[in-house]
Write a structure and sequence with these properties.
By secondary structure, this protein is mostly helical. The chain contains 22 helices and no strands. The longest helix is centred in the middle third of the chain and has 49 residues. Belongs to the sodium:solute symporter (SSF) (TC 2.A.21) family.
Length: about 500
């Protein structure tokens, strides 16, 4: 074990814990539920940008994506750049309307927004279970990525690295809640950006420049320097599917959409779009380009997911490598903590407080102390379940992550987007869309069916969108209150009244 590598990582983990503890000691500005799950809607533009980027740039982006680029070459780098507009799309499509309506109905979670729109407990319950199942799968990916990183750097067994990583993330999320999540995301986003730039410069220097490394890649396999990749794996249909899965469809990811409920004002949103898009572009290019070029410097890797930490150990001095290995660690931690908070909010706020506690008439409402303990207890239990599931990892985590991404999009995309922009959408349409999307995606992925060679997400979104429209048109129109809140005319007027 190289102590020069371990010390910076340990210091980073301790810093995150200390930051979570410090933020937990700050005076609470509202109810525990609003503070713990949404940070009292106080995010400025820079923090919004960094938490959006950090939440999206996960283990798949920092570990799995470069691993895929290592295997498939420069074509995967080009493909990865499809993800650049994700912050702009999410905030541009959902941001202003979500924030305006959320403040009017006091929505703290995505399921609060769904209930305000559809007035159906069944929609909320179905969404809650779909969200929990997909979040557990994506959090397993993040835990695996963190453990792989510690395994590569420290020489610890995989299980030992997994326990250390999981303990750190669980502790600072339990202590600080949403506020700790977004502030640590801002710190982690800066580390991710610096680490990516330093690594890419080191890789290019060690390989003698981009031109020499391109020639070396072509000597290994000519497919590594073509847009289609080895054996023409990156076909046109695959690229189209990938664009839908990791760019357009990201609008439907609940853990990104919830950020649209928590920023301070319109100025913060506009600043967040600009900063987030620029930082995201640098991260996506730097991470994947370094992964592709890494095939020249470390051609013997049997587990592609280890390419990023291995490259840092190869091209950087130990103390520098240890410092900037916090970059991929930050990417992984920032996604897990967001999803842990969302999973806890789903169980405690959306299911227990909204339904189960109200179903026992005559009993007093749960006390704030009970809610606080329940929220943290649920966060801990979900984290332990994910830890158990991560004990037996696959060789490449990107496919598991994309599978979970697709499931979330198939369930949430149309109820969120059409529910916001089409006043005629109804609960029946939302239910039809969610069930159709989940079943279609599940069947196509389980049996490996590729309609027209497309990834399962493309037909799933097409069929679920059609189900939303048909189900809505065949059911009674929303009530006057919903039309006034979500109608086109009201949203047009709201832009000038958005909180400032």
């Amino acid at each position: 074990m190289n102590i020069e590598l371990v010390i910076p990582l340990v210091c980073y983990l301790v810093l995150m814990l200390a930051l979570g503890f410090y933020l937990s000691r700050r005076p609470q500005q509202g109810s525990f539920v609003q503070d713990y799950f949404l940070g009292n809607r106080s995010m400025g533009g820079f923090v919004l940008a960094m938490t959006m980027v950090a939440t999206y740039a996960s283990a798949s982006s920092f570990i799995g994506g470069p691993g895929a680029a290592y295997s498939m070459g420069l074509g995967w780098v080009l493909l990865a750049m499809i993800q650049v507009p994700t912050v702009w799309l999410t905030l541009g499509v959902l941001g202003k309307q979500f924030a305006h309506i959320a403040r009017r109905v006091n929505a703290l979670t995505i399921n609060d927004m769904l209930y305000a729109r559809y007035r159906s407990p069944l929609v909320v319950i179905l969404a809650a279970f779909g969200l929990l199942a997909a979040f557990i799968a994506t959090m397993v990916v993040q835990f695996i990525g963190g453990a792989r990183l510690l395994e590569t750097v420290t020489g610890l067994p995989y299980q030992g690295g997994l326990i250390i990583f999981a303990t750190t993330v669980l502790l600072y999320t339990l202590i600080g809640g949403f506020r700790a999540v977004v502030i640590t995301d801002a710190v982690q986003g800066i580390l991710m950006l610096i680490g990516t730039i330093v690594l890419l410069v080191g890789v290019l220097h060690a390989g003698g420049g981009a031109s020499a490394m391109f020639s070396a890649l072509a000597d290994i396999d000519p497919g590594l320097v073509t847009p289609q990749g080895p054996d023409d794996f990156l076909s046109t249909s695959f690229m189209l599917s990938f664009w839908v899965l990791v760019c357009f469809g990201v609008i439907g990811l609940p853990h990104s959409a919830v950020r649209c409920l928590a920023y301070k004002d319109s100025g913060a949103m506009h600043k967040g779009i600009i900063i987030g898009t620029l930082v995201g572009a640098l991260l996506m290019f730097g991470m994947h380009f370094a992964g592709a070029l890494g095939r020249v410097l470390v051609p013997e890797l049997t587990v592609p997911d280890k390419v990023m930490p291995t490259l840092m150990l190869t091209v950087l001095p130990p103390i520098v490598a240890g410092l900037f290995l916090a970059g991929p660690m930050a990417a992984i931690m920032s996604t897990i903590d967001s999803q842990l908070i969302q999973a806890s909010a789903t169980l405690v706020k959306d299911l227990y407080l909204n339904y189960l506690s109200r179903s026992h008439g005559g009993k007093p409402a749960p006390s704030p102390i009970f809610i606080k303990r329940a929220s943290r207890g649920v966060t801990l239990v979900v984290g332990l379940i994910v830890l158990w599931a991560a004990l037996s990892p696959p060789d490449m985590i990107i496919w598991l992550n994309l599978l979970a991404f697709g499931a979330l999009q198939a369930i949430f995309f149309w109820p969120l987007v059409l529910g916001l922009y089409w006043w005629r959408g109804t609960a029946a349409g939302a239910l039809a869309s969610m069930v159709t999307g989940a079943l279609c995606y599940g069947l196509l992925t389980t049996f490996g069916i590729k309609l027209l060679g497309l990834h399962a997400i493309v037909p799933s979104l097409a069929f679920s969108g059609l189900a939303y429209v048909i189900g809505s048109l065949l059911s009674p129109a929303p009530c006057a209150e919903v039309r006034a809140l979500f109608g086109k005319e009201e949203l047009g007027k709201s832009s000038s009244r958005h909180p400032a």
